[in-house]
Structure prediction request, 129 residues.
Amino acid sequence: MDNGICVASCDLRYQFIGENKECGECHTSCSKEGCLGPFSTDCNSCGDAYFQHEGRCLLECPTTTFKDKNGTCVSCASTCNECTGPTAFDCVACDGPSYRGECVDACPSLHYIDENGNCDACHAECTLI
Prediction:
């Protein structure tokens, strides 16, 4: 039902909802491809200014994700807090130390974490204990 008139299908910006099969408006984050219900989790796809993440349409991707070319928020490497791509070399902020531009879980042998979170080589006279 649309504006009190029985219809076979709803306009693309609407969907069937409820037991009465009434046409209701899609969430503003949905694209013109329509939706299955009134919430951002019901969109068939996201609108131009929105990104898909875990079944929802969001204005911004969460910090631990990046926007891919398909408009989807994709998880960063596990060692990143923030990134621009999927690898540890794409990290903007590391979850742990950084070694040669890559976020790592731990510094390699004979290296230590400096005050900036980078792995620096120990002094040449240092040895493993």
